[in-house]
Amino acid sequence: MQTTVRAEIHLGALRHNLALARELAGPARVLAMIKADAYGHGLVPVARALAPGADGFGVARFHEALALREAGVTRRILLLGSLLDRELLQACARHDIDLVVHNPACCRRVLEHDGPPLRIWLKLDVGMHRLGLTRADFLAAHRQLSASPAVAELVHMAHFSRADEPELPVTRQQLQPMLDSRLQLAAAETPLSLANSAALITRADCRGQWVRPGIMLYGDNPVAPSHPLALAAPMRLRARVLALRQVAPGAAVGYGGDWVARRPSRIATIGIGYGDGYPRHARAGTPVGLSGGLAPLVGRVSMDAITVDVTDLPAPEIGEEAELWGDRVPVAEVARRAGTISYTLLTGVAARVPRHYVEESAQWRGQPPRASTAIPLR
Fold first, then answer.
1. Residue tagged active-site, from 35, 39, 274, 343
2. Which fold, 235-358?
3. pTM to 2 decimal places
């Protein structure tokens, strides 16, 4: 039975990207971010693939951390900002899961903990204004937690709000409060974690003792093209051609008649839509890869199908697989055409899309994703 749509996950490409992150990290340890089901790639398979090269994993929900432990993953796991209560603290201690303290209430909960000691990542708000302690509360929490028998290890952390805009002085400005706080605490020996993918690629002064690469592991460089990096695309989203038809000049294609043929046109219908996670707002002209080349999306994306103009390509075969994003069509390009970001597309691939995992027998030699050929809008 042919699968209409599938996501092919290349584990070697993930390892290739992790190796690049580790090279950039220097002596720092690497906490691979695999929250949101490993950015849509599959939590447990990705963790198993990356475990030999990663020092730990970051997740956003306790059930993700628990799933990793139940799958036999022994690497260090950090549960990012969450609500901390007695039950969660006990569960994290039992399953050896690190926790983030990001407000005074979290700090008090940890100080009240009477179970096995916890590893705590103490978060300073340096400008995101989402989670994190004020400087005064950070200083107080450090002094309390570093003296508490409830804490086995303390790590300082922060998160930059605009590291993907390296031309701006914002990241340098946000770094300073952390450096000043550590100086005031005489805490130079306390491990420090600052760098996400963008900061890891652009700022050697932000690497500290732990780096936290995320989107770069999944093939997207958040600071391209100013800082090129030979990342590979682990996810190849593919769907089959369901039908071909000729339409006359003046014929409208799809809901609403948004796209109208200006010439005799050959239209291919491909079995993927927003019900699978392909972006509803992808504009006409968004590239789709076929065996004969790149074809432009035409008409509105529907729940289960899209249409592309293949007039200028050799006619594809019914059942041929098209690439919606992957190594031919960068996911960042599709995101740009849809007015969104690659994170949204990758994490939004629906559960009904089967993931097929490819384990390369030799070391991955992937090339950076190619920029898509310009396709004129019609």
1. 35
2. Lyase, Ornithine Decarboxylase; Chain A, domain 1 (2.40.37)
3. 0.93
